[in-house]
Amino acid sequence: MDANRIELQQRRVELYVGDMFPLSVDIFPENAIPPILEWESSDDHVVAVNDEGILTARETGSAVVTVKVGVLNLSSHCDVIVRERNSQGLLPAENHSGSSGSQVHSTPVSRPNVPISSTESSFAPVSSKPWVPPTHQTDSSYVHEEEPSVPQVELPTTSTVPKPDVVWPEVSSSSSKIPESSSSSISSSTPSSQPDEPPYLVRIDIQSLPEKTIYSVSDRLDLSGFALLATYSNGATSIVKSGFTCTPMKLETAGTQAIRVYYGQKETSFSVVVQEDPIEILAYRVEKAYQDASVLQSAFSVSFTTNVAFQDATLEIDGMSAECPMRNSTEGMQSFDRKYFSKPSYDITLKVTDNSGNQDEVTFTAELGEVDITIEPTQAQIAAGEDLELVADVLGIAGHSVRWSSSAPSVASVSDHKVLGKDYSSATVSGKKKGQATITATVAGKEASCTVTVH
What we know:
It is built from no helices and 33 strands. By secondary structure, it is mainly β. The strands form nine sheets. Strands 20, 21, 22, 23, 24 and 25 form a six-stranded antiparallel sheet that branches. A four-stranded mixed sheet has the order 2-9-8-5, with no helix packed on it. Strands 6-7-3-10 form a four-stranded antiparallel sheet, with no helix packed on it.
């Protein structure tokens, strides 16, 4: 089932220059085949987006990030606003300098669960209140909130000795130190010189298999209930239910088949079982008066087709059993010599077996029609040494299946002429000596005769 709607979970995001933030997409319905998502930004100079939907804030301004499925004409967008930090790498806040202009080192503050910045300084503003991480608004938009302002700390402006309860150390040109005081929560700390590395995708694993794992040949893969577990370099994990691709989607080969899953340039796989459909006879037909000149044989044939290749095929007719010479095919044919079947109709049972041992059979009636033969004339006279040609008309079978005979070959002999694909048979009668002989034509149990007198 194809997706009919996609929707970004974040509709509005505020970032600072250097921040990175992953967008999330919901696919509807949940059991839809995961589509291939395309990402684009209306202004790559302000914010860029990669193939995994991760935003990178580049410079101040605003842009619209869109995710779409082109082949299905689906899309969703998110408004992104990028702001600038101040010159010290701090978030916008009140002035942090003392009355003499001396700089104050701020204490690094841990900032879990916030958009990642590849350029952000490890310095962060000092606050007497705990820092509050950005929150998700009720309208599903992400807002990167400013941190609380820093309390003012007044530094000495002259070289006079301060009050006895506060001892000011010397301030060097390379660093500034802050006096310990019971009235201030500010303490000195050595910041890290390296910025935090943006987390990246390390691996993907199967979180839950699809509800359906057994298929028939030519079925389409159903990913209902399937989910991935994505693991990132910072140890974070997330469950992924869309945005990945699978191959193959159409199952053409019977047996256990590996399904490969791709997400964010990572790969994993799971297996499904593909079963062949049980063999089934789709069609059959009887063709009368089938001619095979290579073996001089008059026959009728039975041809048939199956949905999958058969390993064996057998036809049973009038107590006889004949195996189809074909193997591993979906089409078969078996021919029969009509001279052995004189009745106008027969019940035929066709049985087929596939490579997995599945069987199917069908019984049908073959209408062959009446078989009969006549000779004209029924009486004739010839002299010894003369020849006479007799013709037998045949009904329901080709003429070359007729057998000729003489009751007295010493008086009159007979030799038949092979006539292929015709409804008659001819023979030459030769007079040998004075007397009388009966010339008989036989086909499929039917006879006709002519009395020949030789004088």
